[in-house]
Structures are given as C-alpha cells and as structure tokens.
Amino acid sequence: GQTGKLMYVMHNSEYPLSCFALFESGPCLIADANFDILMVKLKGFFQNAKANKIESRGTRYQYCDFLVKVGTVTMGPSARGISVEVEYCPCVIANDCWNLLMEFMQSFMGNHTPGIPSVFGTKHDSIYSPADTMVQYMDLFNKIRKQQQVPVAGIR
C-alpha cells in the first residue's frame, strides 16, 4: 500500500570494489561489490528496472595535478550525451579549490563550463568523498532521462 521510492545502484571504475546505492532524495550507501547479489536475493522487495540502465564510458586523462574524465553517456544502445569529470587531486575540500577548477575547465570548455554543483552547497568545508561524485553522476543521468521524456513534434 505504500508508494515505492527509487534506489539507483551505481558502479565506478575508480572504485571497483565498491557499489553505490543512491536513494531518491536521500543518502548514498557505499557497500562492497557483492551488494548487487544481495539485491537479486531481495527481489521480492525491490523491482528491477533494467530498461533504465544508463552509463558513462570514456577516457581518463591526467594533466599535472588534474584528473579529467571524458565519457559518452549511453542509455540502451544509443548515445545521449557527454560527461566531463574534473578533479584537482591535491585538494580534499571541494570548496577550497572550486575557483581553480573553474579556471581550468574554462581553458578547454569555454562558455560551456558548468556552475557550482549542488553537492558543494551541502558540503561547505567537509571532505569530498566518492559518494559526492556518484551524486553528481546521478544528477547528470536524471537530466538526460528527463530530456528523453520530452516529446518532439513539428520538426522539419
């Protein structure tokens, strides 16, 4: 009788032994890679939505202290967008290096440089974690999913 909440199970090649479970408007659970197997055993409580599989695959570059990952976001068999992840490796407090990250991104993204991610607003002076990266990927994937739901009509 209760309405279900969505939980997204995500993986990141930078953390191959971890599995991330993000709840809609809630926390991010970090578990070991066997979490997927546990979810299969709990299929009576959770409904799997394989049709919604979305992923970003690409190349990882390192330039001095910066790590840049450029990926193609695919949903099913077709490409839906591009993801760009930039990390300044020496800094663990995201707000402390945001201006430096912006300047670096503007050097190759120009006016397509994004604004400050919403995850930074809640972190303030705390340590940035892999879960924060996964939340940002989830935000990107949700934006791409919403774009797919908009019907296109009258294009010639």
From TrEMBL:
Subcellular location per the Swiss-Prot or TrEMBL entry: Nucleus
Gene Ontology terms for molecular function: transcription coactivator activity
Keywords: Activator, Nucleus, Transcription, Transcription regulation
Domain of life: Eukaryota
Keyword presence, Manganese: no
GO cellular component: mediator complex
A biological-process GO annotation: regulation of transcription by RNA polymerase II
InterPro entries on file: Mediator_Med20
Job of this protein: Component of the Mediator complex, a coactivator involved in the regulated transcription of nearly all RNA polymerase II-dependent genes. Mediator functions as a bridge to convey information from gene-specific regulatory proteins to the basal RNA polymerase II transcription machinery. Mediator is recruited to promoters by direct interactions with regulatory proteins and serves as a scaffold for the assembly of a functional preinitiation complex with RNA polymerase II and the general transcription factors.
Record-linked PANTHER family: MEDIATOR OF RNA POLYMERASE II TRANSCRIPTION SUBUNIT 20 (PTHR12465:SF0), UBIQUITIN SPECIFIC PROTEASE HOMOLOG 49 (PTHR12465)
Complex formation: Component of the Mediator complex.
Record family assignment: Belongs to the Mediator complex subunit 20 family.
Descriptive protein name: Mediator of RNA polymerase II transcription subunit 20
Lineage: Eukaryota, Metazoa, Chordata, Craniata, Vertebrata
Gene name of the record: MED20
